[in-house]
Design a protein that fits this description.
There is one protein chain. With about 140 residues, this protein is of the alpha+beta class. About 15% of the residues lie in helices and about 15% in strands. The chain contains 2 helices and 7 strands. Strands 1-2-3 form a 3-stranded antiparallel beta sheet. A hairpin with a 7-residue loop joins β6 and β7. The radius of gyration is 24 Å and the shape is elongated. It starts with 16 loop residues before the first strand and ends in a 20-residue tail after the last strand.
Length: about 140
């Protein structure tokens, strides 16, 4: 078995940077408050703290404005207040689900009966008809 060279002396060393299976960049920062037990932290979270000049508060999320998880330039990072807010920003067009805290407007039944109801059910799915109605012709 060959000699194992730690850190920079190892031929596989990439400067303490790697890309995790979820697509985010990890940087080696042993002892940093964001680091895991191996000493790695998500670079976008470290950089976001640099940008805002403080630690991220519990629940705050970091959004990549251009959608590229490896682009951790300060101008591409936006700190948002919660996962719900982050999901709202990241919502793909065509997905019609109600997110936590989002308004639930009143709409008219699509069958033409004239009844009004909240657009989304309790699971956040959109509705077009009053519960129990079918799309029947009158």
């Amino acid at each position: 078995m060959g000699t194992v060279h730690p850190g920079e002396r190892n031929p596989n060393w990439r400067g303490g940077r790697s890309v995790a299976s979820n697509g985010y960049v990890l940087v080696r920062l042993p002892g940093h408050h964001l680091a895991d037990v191996r000493g790695y932290a998500y670079e976008h979270r470290v950089r976001a703290e640099e940008k805002i000049g403080r630690r991220l508060a519990k629940g705050e999320q970091v959004h990549h404005i251009n959608g590229c998880k490896t682009d951790n330039r300060l101008e591409n990072l936006q700190v948002v207040e919660s996962i719900a807010h982050h999901r709202l920003i990241e919502r793909k067009s065509g997905i019609d689900l109600r997110l936590p805290g989002e308004d639930n407007p009143m709409v008219q039944c699509a069958c033409g009966c004239g009844e009004a109801f909240e657009r989304f059910d309790k699971s956040g799915r959109p509705r077009k008809f009053v519960t129990g109605h079918n799309a029947r012709k009158r």
